Amino acid sequence: MIHKHIGGKKNQRSVKNSLDYLLRTNKPEEQKFVEVLSQTNRSDIENFNEYIKEKNFKNPFITSVLSFEEKDIDPELKTKIMNDFEDMMFSGIDPENRPPVIWIQHKDKNRLELNYTTFNSLMNKKHFQCYYHLSDKKLFNSFCEKINYENNISSVLDVQEHKARNTLVNTLNNKIPEEKKVVVEKLQEEILSKIITEEINNREELISFIQSKNIIINRVRENAISIKFDKADKPISLKGDIYEQNRDYKTYKTESTIDHRADQQYVENQLRHHRENFDTELKKRHSRNRTRFKPTQSKDQKNVEFRIKKANDSKNVRSEISDNNNVPSRNEPDIDFFHNNKTMEDVSNEQNFTNDKTKPREEEQAKFDLSREIEAVNTQQQFIRSRVEEAGRNQQQFRKSLDKTEERSRVCRRSLHSIISNIRRYVRTFSINTRQNQRRQEIEHRQKIFLEKLKNQQTQNNQRSVVRSRFKPH
Questions:
Q1: 86, 140 Cβ separation under 8 angstroms
Q2: 116 and 58 share one domain
Q3: Domain boundary at 254, 269, 304, which?
Q4: By residue range, what is the domain housing residue 194?
Q5: To 10 degrees, what angle do helices 133-151 and 264-292 make?
Q6: Among 91-105, 326-340, 351-365, the range of highest mean pLDDT
Q7: φ, ψ for residue 288 (rounded to 5)?
Q8: 227 forms bridges with which residues in the sheet?
Q9: 290 or 327: which carries more pLDDT confidence?
Q10: Which strands form 236-239's sheet, in the order they lie side by side?
Q11: Which of 23, 81, 215, 388 is the most exposed place for a label (fewest CB within 10 A)?
Q12: Cα→Cα distances 250→63, 194, 197, 284, 364, Å
């Protein structure tokens, strides 16, 4: 899974075109591969677009995609990914102040795509940029990689898993003239034979070999080499695994095809690395949003003020009850009690009577606190139980991936052995033909020399016969 930004840029003001593309409005034959996964629908998005139109934002909306290599994943995992992604994107923003988000699933490319469209504006019409590529790329990529490793989803960014090797030599372009195409193919065959016999071990030696054939190296790129047979010719690009930079050809015999995901230590290290990056970047985003959008966080402050006001009101009620019953407060006893010949014992008894009135309130508060603690414990137990179930599912998926990896490694080994054996067979045939051609050339050269000698000898004999006939007596 990888995140890609695909729409809502370059001064796109109306969200209609993006929705038409995501919902395949103009392609009815492709609508069977499209499904809306969110409760938000098209009318909600268009209404919000009208709602913020007066602000005249440069880029009011954003359309992006979470692209998977897999054809499909578990529906519960889809929901979890979408919810976690929204929480990450709107971290530090109150839920009631977040803009609507529509999720649309595509399967028309034989793989899963979770497309989403939302707005660079909050519900209070304040501008909120959902994605800045330079500052948010690390956070979004870390989120994707964390999900990938937690759920054994393939990753485009995982270099160890996806060493995307091309074929040894790519097919030449059809626009190349046929006579030059034959020469280039013969050149590549010679290069492959020398790589197998270990006469060429890296790209530098390959370039030297090409130059030894009086071929011009036009340009050397990271994954290709372009050549010319003449300065006036158009360059011919040679592509393939053997033309990649820093490629050591000796690894064709020693390189392992084992999937690095099968190494538990590797998976744990990668997962820890991506989680640390994600937590660090998410804290930055959360802090930045909380600082910038302080008015949107007024709900917490109102709750605090309400609780303080409620506590003050309860104190005032108790003080009014004390006044009505002519009971002095604990800290400020009424002086009239002492003038009426009341002892300190009587005053303390009256104070205890007042305290008895407040006990029901305290007991209710204690019961309320206890119920909240019980609810928190139940929530934590449910969380732990879900984590245990998730760990069990991950373990099952990991075992399945191990089986698939072993099968893939066996297939890769067999295919590599067959490639090497075919190349060796070709090299042997090529060397035999080369030796036969050399012998044939040698024989033809000897025959040519012999015929020339025979011709010279015959010419000399003819000259001698002419001289003899000239001086022969008649």
A1: no
A2: yes
A3: 254
A4: 178-254
A5: 140
A6: 91-105
A7: -65, -45
A8: 217, 236
A9: 290
A10: 216-220, 224-228, 236-239
A11: 388
A12: 46, 12, 10, 46, 79
Q: Is 297 among the domain residues?
A: no
What are the b/e assignments for 45-76, b being 16+ CB within 10 Å?
A: beebbeebeeeebebbbbbbbbbbeeeeeeee
**Residue 418 and residue 412: Cα distance in Å, rounded?**
10
What's the structural domain count of the chain? Answer: 3
Report whether 71 contacts 111 (CB < 8 A). Answer: yes
Same domain, 121 and 7: yes
Paired tokens of 404: 């698939």
Map residue 274 onto helix, strand or coil: helix
Query: What contacts 24+ positions apart, CB below 8 Å, involve 134-138?
Result: 136/285, 138/277, 138/281
Confidence of residue 246 (pLDDT cuts 50, 70, 90): confident
Instruction: Retrieve residue 196's tokens.
Output: 């197998």
Assigned domain for 138 exists: no
pTM over 0.90: no
pLDDT score at 162: 42
Domain boundary (132, 153, 187) is at 132
Q: How far apart are the first and last CA of the chain?
A: 111
Amino acid found at 432 = I
Residues 6+ apart with CB under 8 A from 168: 192, 240, 241, 242, 419
Distance CA 206, CA 220 (A): 12
- Give the residue carrying structure tokens 């499904």: 35
Q: pLDDT-based confidence at 128, cuts 50/70/90?
A: very high
CA atoms of 377 and 383, how far apart (whole Å)? 10
Give 222-273 as a 3 state SS string: CCEEEEECCCCCCCEEEECHHHCCCCCCCHHHHCCCCCHHHCHHHHHHHHHH
Q: Among residues 327, 386, 371, which one has the least CA distance to residue 352?
A: 327
**CB-CB contact of 155 with 68 (8 Å):** no
Question: Are the beta carbons of 154 and 148 closer than 8 angstroms?
Answer: yes
Mean pLDDT across the chain, nearest whole number? 78
Contact 283, 92 (CB under 8 A): no
Judge whether residue 68 has pLDDT over 50.
yes
State percent of the chain over pLDDT 90: 23
The residue type at 156: V
Sheet holding 61-67, edge to edge: 2-7, 61-67, 113-119, 102-106, 34-36
Helix (H, G, I), strand (E, B) or coil at 48: helix
Cβ atoms of residues 222 and 244 within 8 Å: yes
What is d(CA 344, CA 325) in angstroms, rounded to the nearest whole number?
18
